[in-house]
Amino acid sequence: MSLIDKANELLSRWEKEVCTLPVPEDFPNNVLMCIADVIDEAKDEVQKLGLDPYDDFKDIAGNVESDLIKCILDHDEFLETLTSTYLTGSRYANDTKVKILAARIMSSAMNGINANAYFKEVEEDMIDLLYRWALADQEPLTSYAVEMLSYGETLCSRYHQNNMEVVSLLLQKLKGMYASAKSEYIAAHPTTTTIGSAPWSEDTQDGTETITSSPDIADNPLLDPTLVGRRNFEEFQCQAVLHFLLSLGEYQEFLGLIMKNSILKLLLNYISITDINSPIIFDIIRYLSALLCHKKFASDFMNYEGLQLLMDLPFNQRASTGISTCFYALVFHSTVMERLCSYTRHLIAPMMTTCLRLLKGKHESGRSHVTLFLTFGFHYQAIIEEFDKQCGLPIFFKVLRRAVDALKTPPENEVEVFLLRQKMKHTCNAVRQYLAGHTVLYAEHLRRVKDHQGVGMSPQIYTNHKALEIEDNIKTAYEYIQANAEFDTLWKPIDDVHSLGGFETFIQAFFLSETFRSTRYDASPCIITALTFLTILPRYQLKLTEQYQAPNGDSHTGIKMILQAAESFGNIDMQRAALSLIVVVVCGPYRASNMNLSMTPSQYSRKNSADDVMHKMWSAIRTNNGIKVLMSLLLTKTPINHADELRMAACKALNGLCRSRGVRQIASKLHLMSSGQLLALMREPILPENVETHSKFCTYTRSLLEVLFGVSTDKAANEPSLMNKMTKVDIVSKTPITFNKDEIYHLLHSSLLECGLKSTANALVDEVKQKLGKDLAVYPVKSEPQLPSTTHLMSPITPCKKLVIRNARSRVSSGCDPDVSSANLLSPSSIRPTTSKVPQKSFGVKDHMEALEAKTSQMYHPPSLNDLVYNFMRDQHMMCEHPMSIVPKFSLFREHKCPDPQPQLYEAPVNVVVRHQQRLYGVPYGGRNGRYRDYKYIFSKFKPYYTLRMDNRNAEDWENVNYTSCLTFSDYIVAGCNNGHIKVYKMTEHPPYFCVQTTESVECEPITSLVLSQSSKMMVSNSTGEGDVDRPNNSCTIWGVRDPGSSTEAGNSKDLLEQRHNIQGVDHAVFSYLSDDKLLCTMPEHKSSIVDCYTGRTVTVLANPPGSNGYYKNHAVFNFTDDLVLNDGVLWDYRTPTAIHKFDKFNNFVSGVFAPSGIDIIINTEVWDMRTFKLLNTINSLDNCLLKYNHSKDVMYGLSHVKQEILDHEISPSYKHVMGPFESTFKTFAANSGYPSLGTYDVGKQIVDLNFCRRDRLLVTVESTNEEFTQLWSGGSVVKLYLVGRSKASRDDDEEEEDEEEDDDDEDDDEDDSVDNSEFDDDEEVGSLMSEEMNDRSSNSSMSNDDEDEDEDNDSSGNPRTSLNFSVMSDSDDDHTQGRIV
């Protein structure tokens, strides 16, 4: 029978006997005695298992003692009787045996209950009784009461005076116990000589004190084994005293009594005579560790050679676990640790041996205490050296791998999961601190080596016992290592970690930490910081570009994980660590410009390898959208206490990243840089307290602007002047520098003649003639040429920094690699804000000057002749007041000057009537910029014309049906509904033409968009359904569109749309432009496919490479020649199929479209060149807009997506990928170079969809009457038609307001599909005529970008209006009827 069964049987027996009358004679003694014996048996079994002594038994599943105590405590009646009747009740007030047995059971059960809650709920009489027993000499009740009170942590403040008395009494009792134990030890070891000779012996105490032995237990009849059990009561008595003293050991109020009684010496003596296998040895050491938390006791502990005593003890798992607590307590006292690392250095080796044995042991608490001890101990060089000497690093990683592997399949027990998470964090933190200590030591070693090599001396090796100032010196340390270490430098600690697979282990631990990142045991900051130290050396940085598989099966690169951590707002420690790692990998020394002609091939190879790694890291950062992450961090304002620090680190990282030519070109075009927004950030810090951090940010910002634009940004310079300089530099950088090389030959010939080198000059003439086939040209040269002031750049004593920046700007246009430039400028040591300090050397001035000259000769490399000429001509161009990007050839013998701007001639008038009259006289478009003014006049005006509502009165199935999409062609309006139906309206008829089902599935899914083919013979409807949260059930349907004329003549009007194919798993689909045979489908997981429209079969699948941009509103598009596809920011040639290029991501929504020019791609605000993949421009007005082109491809309509906060919190996850809903305004843009804005129109309601007719005269929208975004198409919706180029007259304002009120009113209207009409105004028909004429013109004509505002009404110009007839409302050229639906 198991112990649990015995306990249940005894409880049942107690229930039976307590209700029995008359009560048995031996009740309740017999039952209580049996229950207490069962508990003792459980304790013995648990002790044999050797469990962790620090574990909380009540949370350990499968523990016999824990399960038994829970079984007893779950019996509420027994527990209540035990407390209120047997202990404090009057019925057994004189029955001492019952009280002893009840106290014995309760003292054993205290570790299975919440003691603090118990003592709060129990009556005061119970607590008073326990204190009376503790102060009285009534064994065994005294020991049981002391054991029970040791669990009451909340009793310290409530019963302070009682505790003082109990502590004083127990200290004397502890001395008596030691005296008895000493007598027994001497009797057992009569020949020993160690007692009394140790520094902690009581014989060395000041004064004399008599210690009496504890009374003999055999003299007490109440200590009968039948009452107190078969276990050694003396051990229990000592443990009870130590447990009570331990509970108060951290309180300073009781330290006076402890010091007065010399308890520290007493404990050390007790340890010296106690057997290592004794149960009380652990309790003595545990109480000792509580005293060592106080500085005075820790100091005395070292003076008494207490650490030596602990190290001399044989290794015992239980006792050594208590010793680990002593180590952990000592590490927080700097004076003790410094003494340990200097005078008692010989003790570090046995300490480390014990620590490593505990790391390999089975006690989790000992492993945890040792890990924490080493974490703080790695601040001392002696601890690090001994740890390396005993090969402790493999043990650490073995512990870490076990925790990581266990967390991949976490156990069901929450306690075990908690312990695993705690172990992983503590181990990662210890390794991080170990690497940090080695980094500081290695940087100091390199610094000493470099200093002593300068004076011809070998470095002095020394060991410092002081703590390493890691937090203050760590950034300077790894920057110094990067700047001075070679590519193949051997650094043993880092090499050992990589050889042990530590990098991969940290990556797996980082994956697991994402699941509990919000808790206090988030190991992400420790892991990222450790990865930072592991990637200081360039040869290990490429590990960040490798793919690693997460526990859920996904694969990510290391650098992508770091960038995600950098932008994860809410965890400032992780962001700070991630930015530090990014700075390390992008701001390392770039040695391409440091090539010396005297280099050996091996030195050249090492430098070249480091530069290759740097290029790959720049490319990896860019591929994983690192520019977007860093740019967003520049604008962050949360958390407010750390925002200045975050943007300072981001700006520092951008300094290093912009050394790449591609990144520099993109960054210089971004709105944040080119608009002066970055300069505005330099005005003041976010918090005034962060002035020092903001000063560093300003330093990095000036350096960044100097790299991007070549402009020196002084502190006193104002923003307008800097913006003018940046604009001028941007124009100059685009200017191609061309010149006649014969002029260089002539200058060389003249210089050789002036130097008296006639034969060399003649040889130059002959070689030029032989190579070019002509004589050397003769140019007139003045005797004293007046060169511009910029010729100082040609001097060999020019500072390298100024030359490098100008050289970088020149090589961008000349085709050279500008990454070679500004290498030393942006190394970690140079971009860090420093103050100039004169180095103090012990050697002479001559030696110092020689060393300085040698260092300068290594840093400076003279430019080539082509560089000098380029710089000279570019500086001349920079001096122009109005520089131009297209100029004739430069000359070395003529001063260059760009012409001043001429006044604008033939500018088109602002007034549309005057402009129209000038066109009658042969002036194209009425003058310069006339075409843009015409577009702006027409496409900035929209007049509401039709309002089409859903007829939901006649059928119950249509009660909650709303419009969700729209389309117009010929004389028809096609509207998709949220029940999967399509309704087609003829503009001259009232009832719907016909209604069909979109999908063949049982559930009717909402139709999100309708797309018509170029030939108007096919249509595709896209629908979205409620599926999984990650991906809903989406599909598209291909429809055949019959000829409206033939269908009507045949009398079969319901066959206008014919369903052909249904394709499942498609988010969005569009037709190709040149033919109707291809359908481009956007699929889940950022894939796309091309489907044959006639067969419905998939022809090609384009799967984006790893690291795609992941736009929320991604939809794939063809280019206008149907040979390229843009999907999720990746450009594809689908015929191969191959991914051509991935464009950088700077937004989360818009995936981009092709521009009608055929050479541009517009992705949100960025305009990219398809030929060079360079960023051409950023247009801020396009931000977050879905672009749709009109039929002639000369005007763009922009619909603004809802904000990301609304998308994340208010819209169902199943509809997040749908294009809509949009905000209440749409914008129009000219689809030419510059993409200028034409106008913005506010419809006043949420836009669900927008479309337009083929002749650009009608605009159709679906507008929702629901103002909230909780559900995508909740509430009502209407289809509304607008006239393009028409302004709403003032007399129609009241009617329009009434229409809006009717939209929000009851849906059950008296009209069926009602339409609100408004007549045309005669004075507005000019705009429609202009629209008709412009559609007849070629859309390829260029139009200049002019931002000049124009009047929208012609009455203000004073010119008479021209009244022209216009009544065309349909797309059909034959059927021109004034559109009304009645």
Characterization of this structure:
With 1382 residues, the chain is α+β, with helices and mostly antiparallel strands. It is built from 50 helices and 30 strands. The chain has a four-stranded antiparallel β-sheet with strand order 3-30-29-28. A four-stranded antiparallel β-sheet has the order 4-5-6-7, with no helix packed on it. Helix 5 (96-109) runs parallel beside helix 8 (141-149), helix 29 crosses helix 30 and helix 32 (626-634) packs antiparallel against helix 33 (643-657). The longest helix is centred in the first third of the chain and has 41 residues, at 414-454. The radius of gyration is 43 Å and the shape is globular.
Write the SSE topology.
Layout: H1 3-18, H2 29-49, H3 64-73, H4 76-87, H5 96-109, H6 115-121, H7 124-135, H8 141-149, H9 155-158, H10 160-188, H11 225-228, H12 233-247, H13 255-260, H14 263-273, H15 280-291, H16 295-303, H17 306-312, H18 317-330, H19 334-342, H20 348-359, H21 364-377, H22 381-389, H23 393-408, H24 414-454, H25 470-484, H26 492-499, H27 502-513, H28 524-534, E1 547-549, E2 555-557, H29 558-566, H30 572-586, H31 601-623, H32 626-634, H33 643-657, H34 661-669, H35 671-674, H36 677-681, H37 691-709, H38 719-734, H39 742-754, H40 758-772, H41 800-814, H42 828-831, H43 845-859, H44 865-878, H45 912-920, H46 930-938, E3 942-948, E4 963-969, E5 972-977, E6 981-986, E7 995-997, E8 1007-1012, E9 1018-1025, E10 1033-1041, H47 1044-1049, E11 1057-1064, E12 1068-1071, E13 1078-1083, E14 1087-1092, E15 1098-1103, E16 1117-1118, E17 1125-1127, E18 1130-1133, E19 1138-1142, E20 1153-1154, E21 1160-1163, E22 1166-1169, E23 1175-1178, E24 1185-1189, E25 1195-1201, H48 1204-1209, E26 1222-1230, E27 1237-1242, E28 1246-1252, E29 1258-1264, E30 1277-1284, H49 1293-1304, H50 1325-1336
Antiparallel strand pairs: 1-2, 3-30, 4-5, 5-6, 6-7, 8-9, 9-10, 10-11, 12-13, 13-14, 14-15, 16-17, 17-18, 18-19, 20-21, 21-22, 22-23, 24-25, 25-26, 26-27, 28-29, 29-30
